[in-house]
Amino acid sequence: MKAIRRLTVRPVLPEPLRPLGELARNLRWSWHAETRELFRSADPGGWGAAGADPVRLLGSVSAARLAELARDRSFLRRLSDASADLDEYLHGPRWYQRRDPQGPDGGPLPAAIAYFSPEFGVTAALPQYSGGLGILAGDHLKAASDLGVPLIGVGLLYRHGYFRQSLSPDGWQLEHYPVLDPGELPVTLLREPDGTPARVTLALPAGRCLYARIHLARVGRVPLLMLDSDIEDNERGEREVTDRLYGGGSEHRLLQEMLLGIGGVRAVRAYCRITGHPAPEVFHTNEGHAGFLGLERIRELGEAHGDGTGPQWGGTGPRGDRDGECAEGGDAGGDEGPGAGTGAGAGPGAGAPLDFGAPLDFDAALEAVRAGTVFTTHTPVPAGIDRFDRDLVARHFGTGAELASVPVDKILALGTETYSDGDPGLFNMAVMGLRLAQRANGVSTLHGAVSRGMFAGLWPGFDPEEVPITSITNGVHAPTWIAPEVHRLGARRIGARRAEEALATGGCELWNAVVDVPDAEIWHLRRTLRERLVGEVRARLRASWRQRGAGAAELGWVDQVLDPDVLTIGFARRVPSYKRLTLMLRDRDRLRELLLHPSRPVQIVVAGKAHPADDGGKRLIQELVRFADDPRVRHRIVFLPDYGMGLAQKLYPGCDVWLNNPLRPLEACGTSGMKAALNGGLNLSVLDGWWDEWYEPDFGWAIPTADGSTAHEERRDDLEAVALYDLIENRVAPCFYQRGPEGLPRRWVEMVRRTMAVLGPKVLAGRMVREYVERLYAPAARAHRALDRDTARELARWKARVLAEWGGVAVDHVETVEPIEAPESPGAPAEPPGPGPRGRAELGAALTVRARVALGTLGPDDVEVQAVAGRVDPDDAIADARVSPLKPVGGADLEGRRMYEGTLTPDRTGPFGYTVRVLPCHPLLASHTDPGLVSLPGDRSPTP
Question: What residue ranges in 220-372 does DSSP mark as E strands?
Answer without folding.
Answer: 222-228, 282-286
